[in-house]
TrEMBL record:
Organism lineage: Bacteria, Bacillati, Actinomycetota, Actinomycetes, Pseudonocardiales
Domain of life: Bacteria
Protein name: DUF4865 family protein
Organism name: Kutzneria chonburiensis
Length: 179
C-alpha cells in the first residue's frame, strides 16, 4: 500500500463552488481506476471555519502501476493545467483497518515525527472506532514522519469534508500490519 496526497491551497476569497463542481463532475472518473484502493476528495473551506481554502485529495494505492498511470495520465495533467503542478507527498504504507461505517463524509490527517523503534507499537495500538470508515498509517522514511489518515461517517472535529470517495479496490487493500 502506498499513500499519497497533494494540497492545493487557494486564496481566501476563492469561490470554493468551483472545487465542489469539479469534484461533482470529475470525481467518478476514478471510481474504477485499476490499482486504486481509495481516493478521498478532501476539502477545507474558510466558510466552514477552516483557516484556509484547500483541495487536498488523499489516496491509498494498492499498486505502484496504478499510481504511476494516474500521475502521468490525463487526469493529473488536467489538474496541473488548472492549478499548477502541486508537490505530491508519498508515504510507505504501514497498516490499514476498515471500520464499521459504510460511508465517509469527514476526514482527519495527523502527522508527527516517529522513530523506527516506535512503529510496531503505534501500529499495534491503532483501533477502529464506531463511526469510522477506515484508518491508514504510513511513514515518510526520509524524515521519519508518520501520517495517520482516518475517514469518518460523521465527525464534526475532523478538519476535511469528503466531497466524494472513489474506492474501486478498497476490498483488496491488505488489512492490518503491512510487514
Amino acid at each position: 500500500m502506498h499513500a499519497m496526497q497533494y494540497e492545493i491551497t487557494l486564496p481566501a476569497d476563492y469561490d470554493m463552488g468551483i472545487i465542489r463542481e469539479r469534484v461533482a463532475t470529475k470525481g467518478s472518473l476514478l471510481d474504477a481506476w485499476p490499482g486504486l484502493g481509495l481516493k478521498a476528495y478532501c476539502v477545507r473551506e474558510r466558510a466552514d471555519g477552516s483557516p484556509v481554502n484547500q483541495y487536498s485529495p488523499f489516496y491509498l494505492w494498492r499498486t505502484v502501476e496504478g499510481m504511476n498511470a494516474f500521475l502521468w495520465g490525463q487526469g493529473f495533467r488536467g489538474l496541473c493545467e488548472a492549478f499548477g503542478r502541486p508537490v505530491v507527498q508519498q508515504w510507505t504504507g504501514l497498516a490499514f483497518q476498515r471500520g464499521p461505517a459504510s460511508t465517509a463524509t469527514r476526514a482527519r490527517k495527523v502527522t508527527r515525527p516517529i522513530t523506527p523503534e516506535e512503529i510496531p507499537d503505534v501500529v499495534a495500538s491503532t483501533r477502529v472506532e464506531d463511526g469510522m470508515h477506515s484508518v491508514a498509517l504510513a511513514v515518510d522514511t526520509r524524515g521519519w514522519q508518520l501520517v495517520e489518515f482516518t475517514l469518518y461517517e460523521d465527525n464534526p472535529a475532523a478538519e476535511y469534508s469528503v466531497r466524494h470517495l472513489s474506492a474501486p479496490e478498497l476490498d483488496q487493500l491488505p488489512v492490518g500490519r503491512q510487514w
